[in-house]
## 1
Amino acid sequence: MTDEFRPVEMLAERLRARIASEGPLPVSAFMMEALFDPMAGFYATKDPLGAHNDFITAPEISQMFGELIGLWAVECWGQMGSPDPVQLIELGPGTGRMMSDVARVLRAAPGLVEAAEATLVEASPALKMVQGRTLAGAPVPVCWAPRLEAIRPGPTLLLANEFLDCLPIRQAVKTDGVWRERCVAMHPDEAGRFAFVLGTALAQADLDLIDPSLRDLPDGTLVELRPADAPLIAALAERLHAHPGYALFIDYGSDTAEPGDTLQAIARHEKVDPLEAPGAADLTAWVNFEAVAQEGLKAGLQVFGVMGQGAFLKGLGLDVRAGLLAQGQDEAGRARITRQAARLCDPDEMGELFKVIAFASPDLPPPPGLGRYAPASEAA
Ligand code: SAH
């Protein structure tokens, strides 16, 4: 038993040793290790996506999702003046399924397949392998980049589904009028288990990251900081200022800043305790779309959305697409397609919790299906 290679147990052991030497770890550090530890991280080591694995995402539910996103990109390319070459960038492509569905529909615009070069930004070596297999027969050349900043400048169509939600978050809790970092330490009573504790007070620069509407909430309030959003949107803005481009992000979250703990862990389609077995479960947190939109405006980009995934997909023609796919199917096939469309669009499934935001270079027309951004907090 003791000689067995058990990477997840070894990751827990490394985290315990790190806590013993460095003290409590901010939630962001714990999340980073749990997702990307090279030996046992959740994404780093395996293919967690799909019906039989840990969770299922929109592109894995149905090819219609990627096809509609592809048609969105086709339209945007035309609005950019059909540049050749054009970089088709995807952040966090998972199994590569969405890119393969997108690439197939690029043929709708003459010249686009010849102009497009797909670049995948993926942190996980295991998922890169899966993406390579999925995209082996793709009609466009495919390459990988470690970060958005590493991709050479040029006209851009950028897509990202469920990418923002796995960027590490920090949490802070107000006690006695002071915001303190929420950290992970060892459980005081149960040997070997992890537990949340409160660490040091936030520095002024971190306090500035808390949405102003939340700063004066009472003791006991928990807020989340998403330190990775701003650098990502800044890198995107640099690209879209240098050359024309559009970017589309789809994710789950809220369109206003709200207090509360949204860190969640999913393993084998079930919610589990986020501290229970780092590496064995996916850790994500709600995206704050208002903050992401504000970063875009601050960086001088045009911002569109925020819209529910259901309304967005219907606006792009989901029902027509579903009808076309259903042609020639037997009754079971038609029922399956109807069920898939409902999962993507119904308000009590992914239709409203999942939201869409887009960015564009300053002089481009609005992308298809989305209106100009207006803060939800102002619309109320
Ligand atoms: N877009 C896919 C996968 C979503 S899961 C789908 O919808 O099915 C999140 C993906 O983002 C995984 O591929 C994960 O490995 C990748 N990822 C997460 N953080 C990343 C980072 N900082 N840099 C690059 N890839 C990242």
## 2
Amino acid sequence: MIILGIETSCDETAICIIETDDNSPSSKIKILGNQLYSQIALHAQYGGVFPMMAKREHIKNLTPLLEQCLIESSFLKSNIKNQISKINEEKKEKINEILVREQGLFEPFIQLVEKIDSTSWNKKIDVIAVTNGPGLEPALWVGVSFAKAISEIWDIPIIPTNHMEGHIVVAQLQQYNESKVESHKVIKLNLETKSYQLKTINYPAVALLISGGHTQLVLIKESLKYEIIGNTKDDAIGEAYDKVARILGLPYPGGPEISRLADIARNNADLTQINAEKSILNNSTHGLPELKFKLPRPMIHSGDLNFSFSGIKTAVLYLVKDIFQRQSASSPHLSATVQAEIAKEFEDAVVEVIVKKTKEAVEQYGAQTIIIGGGVSANKKIRADFTKLAENLSVEFLVPEVSASTDNAFMIALAGYMNIKSGKLSQKDFKAFGNLSLQ
Ligand code: KG4
Ligand code: ZN
């Protein structure tokens, strides 16, 4: 089966084509083409993602990415030429209707389609899997409308796909091995035309989803069946990373930057090096008794599986205000040393909480497997601490390779494939839904 995956839920525009061998006992999965355009550099200038700006970028990038993906996956016999086939007016009108709210997408899409001679397909795409939530609704709609336009023009059914399910299932991959299915703790995944297979999971599993929009504990009693057993009451953990980074004067997205600084502080690296690197003018810490900060571990003793990350962000804000007051009035910046120490304390605090809550969930539900997924699972300390947790609890630990932790279209194609295999039917009239839940 060949699946085209489309992902536009936030600030990554991504398209992926995978091929599965349904006759092989372990479902061999091959990536034929994988294209991703990150809007991070653009949004970084404004310190965060603006939905309408993300939407415009998706509109601009989707058609070129589809073209690249078709070329990369050798889908077409010949090179794409100019104007091979003409789309009739009636069809064009239908496509126009589908894309009417995605201003600027119709023209390049039709141009691409007219460059492709449908008789020159090497293979046929069997199904389109598109993220229809959760995420930023205007951004999601671009992908959904684009999928519907492709479906209309090439007559391919669509499976609407849950973004968070993508983050879960991608952790189940392991490299394809002809002779035996190995049981790895950490799956090595390199999203470059490699073959994979799905690992058999020991259920029940507990998945911790940690991203820019989510912090959820999910109980999985059997494949593709989810029950949310813990949730954040306010901010998501990735959001807290990003907001704390902004308070510390670090660029967007804050997660990787906080993680990098925390790591330096943790390893007692030469902090003068960061000072030079960050060229911060005033690194005076005058008036600070010592560079040790203490932040709360929010809801760590709440006795339930819920989270809260908005208080810790406020605690960092007050801490930074206090430091500014103690510093000489002429120094509106934090020193790199202080930034790194706060980053470390923040990371230690939030990781302690997610580890403890996951441990409680595993014990409460007798889980045999821990899965972590979502952009924040790319974090070095989190990966290390969860590896230790799983060892201590004697359960299996699954985490996607770093390149597959943050948003991508491969995980969407994979989730679509698994849903089709489990009997889910394709849909025509579905909507993008920003708050789509896993249950
Ligand atoms: O899953 P994702 O790519 O997008 C959403 O679905 O939200 O997650 C993005 C989030 C951002 O908040 C980003 O700061 C965070 O993941 N992130 C990290 C790291 N890499 C990305 N957080 C902590 N450490 C990292 N290494
Ligand atoms: Zn995500």
## 3
Amino acid sequence: MQAATISFDRFNVLADDEAQARIRAARARLGDKAVLLCHHYQRADVYQHADLTGDSLKLARLASQTDAQYIVFCGVHFMAEVADILSKPSQIAILPDLAAGCSMADMASLAKVERCWRELGEVLGAPDERITPVTYINSAADLKAFCGEHGGIVCTSTNAPTILDWAFSRREKVLFFPDQHLGRWTGFKKGIPLEQMVVWDPDLEYGGLTPEQIHNAKILLWKGHCSVHQMFQPGHIERWRKQHPDGFVISHPESSLEVCRNSDYVGSTEYIINTISAAAANTHWLVGTELNLVSRLAGEMKPQGKTVEFMAPTVCMCSTMQRIDPQHLAWTLENLAEGKVVNQIRVPAHEAELARIALDRMLAVS
Ligand code: CIZ
Ligand code: SF4
């Protein structure tokens, strides 16, 4: 048994600069035993310590290619789960604050998805022959396991179009969860009529749909969304375009269909960063994704004369990821430097095995 861990109480009260100094000291003690991953949405005072940065999948893959014993994931819970599933058995995935969840991922639970599957079966018969379950990577490991078990697959905002093709090549319908917006935008780009993409409300019997709607549907979209990306409105784009008629608008597909349709480019965090980085000097950009990413990009693009603005007038960050602050990071790293593992994210073996099937299917086709 490991010795008692150092309590967080003493870290909670640390001033920011003290926390920063202790992060640096603990990292020096740990050397390459720990790799520190930061998602694009991570706050600047934590992001500055990253060994690796990227989207959730890229980070999990890169971490598994290192020999680091500890994978310290500065992101949200589902990301650390993916890191645990894809990493070597000897590696330990850690989330510095266990309260850093994803509100979108929380909108779908295994119990509700199982009920949905049962009800779809009552209407359609044999759901495992007629519907491919597709889960966005922003979901709990047990939902990825559900997809692994039922011939389904995981997708990211980068590979969603390829994954939908894979899903439809196997079965006639798709159940897409938990983000209705990514599902709708991806289906829309494939030319699927909007009336054949119906919203499944998990709090209503049969999703609130008639048997006819279920029979006619190509994609059943789970009623889930991201609270950050739902803030963006077509009106924000319209106003900005008046001031910047030669500017470009780029949005994440977790934004509404109307926002995506009014954007010049739509894609994942990696896509947004790569597109703006590769753009001509002195161009103007309006960006519909999380604020920390947009602010960082604005600073990085300034020397090239590119302006990068945030789409919403209100401050909206990924408030759950924001919980990974310098105090939690210092606490985590000091414990690790003492050989004490805190906040390990461990997906149960059976669940991890099934989730891995759905992740491997995705990796094989994208
Ligand atoms: O998968 C990710 O990292 C997320 C949450 C978004 C994206 O587009 O990269
Ligand atoms: Fe989840 Fe939204 Fe945060 Fe992304 S920005 S991690 S979808 S809550």
